[in-house]
Specification:
alpha/beta, Oxidized Rhodanese, domain 1, 2 domains, 5-stranded parallel sheet, 4-stranded parallel sheet, 10 helices, 9 strands, 27% helix, globular
Length: 280
């Protein structure tokens, strides 16, 4: 069986040690970028490697030009995947401790490079621990692999796609509602949202345990937001292109396909002061 959206802790536990599987810990905190690596060294799922959001899942930041977490080149990311022991036939499982907020980034990036056998651990490391499964500390060094990227540009939307979008295109903003409205902005220098975007906080994809809602519940949520728009006319964004992938994962788990990511997201949109900003 190939896992392409979510995997439960019990299913992952049954495959620990399988040579065709790779588990990646992507725990990360914007407030303390080193915290995830420390947490991994203290305790992680046996066999898991660690990938850092800033260093492994993002390209170089160019102030005033890129957003806060630009995508790496396909070649650079393919090299990272090979170092993590991931080849083109590997079943990948990503996990974090934030309801999939960071793990979804790795999920989407693998799909962007043409790799569908990737899933996010539902509930992440807290669910793994709650299930009583084994953990261990230290660092894992996998056998290197070769990953050949097959990029899917149709999964991307750039700023021109946003500016020139047709009236029926839906923009979904994954940030918290108060950031969308411009009432607070703890990270970026400008508050607000892209005009015409709809507020779709990624945390509303989760229940109170930090696990994804059932597919039928997610489908009803997005049907209300999309209002019948074709799935190819859906573009997701957030602050820097990370948590927007959570909405893309939820859409896929609910049976939708074809939605795109604006990787630069809000932090890229506001690099040009001529671009309009909405609040409220």
């Amino acid at each position: 069986m190939t896992y392409t959206t979510l995997i439960q802790p019990s299913d992952l536990a049954a495959h620990l040690g399988d040579p065709g599987w790779a588990v990646v810990d992507v725990r990360f905190s914007l407030d303390d970028p080193a915290r995830g690596r420390r947490a991994y060294a203290e305790a992680h799922i046996p066999g898991a490697t660690y990938a850092h959001l800033d260093e492994d899942l993002s390209g170089p930041v160019r102030p005033g030009v890129t957003g806060r977490h630009p995508l790496p080149t396909p070649e650079a990311f393919a090299a990272t995947l090979g170092r993590l022991g991931i080849g083109n036939t590997t079943q990948v499982v990503a996990y974090d401790d934030a309801g999939g907020a960071i793990a979804a980034r790795l999920w989407w990036m693998l799909r962007w490079l043409g790799h569908d056998a990737v899933a996010v651990l539902d509930g992440g490391f807290p669910a793994w621990q709650a299930g009583g499964y084994a953990v261990r500390g230290g660092e894992e060094v996998p056998a290197p692999a070769r990953f050949v990227p097959h990029p899917r540009p149709a999964l991307l939307a750039d700023v021109e796609d946003i500016v020139r979008r047709a009236p029926g295109v839906r923009l979904l903003d994954a940030r918290a509602a108060e950031r969308y409205r411009g009432e607070v902005e703890p990270i970026d220098p400008v508050a607000g949202h892209i005009p015409g975007a709809l507020s779709a906080p990624f945390r509303e994809n989760l229940d109170d345990r930090g696990r994804f809602l059932p597919p039928d519940v997610l489908r009803r949520r997005f049907e209300r937001l999309l209002g019948g728009a074709p799935q190819a006319d859906v573009i997701c964004y957030c602050g820097s292109g990370v948590t927007a992938a959570h909405n893309l994962l939820a859409l896929a788990h609910a049976g939708f396909a074809g939605a795109r990511l604006y990787p630069g997201s809000w932090s890229h949109w506001i690099t040009d002061p001529e671009r309009p900003v909405a609040t409220g």
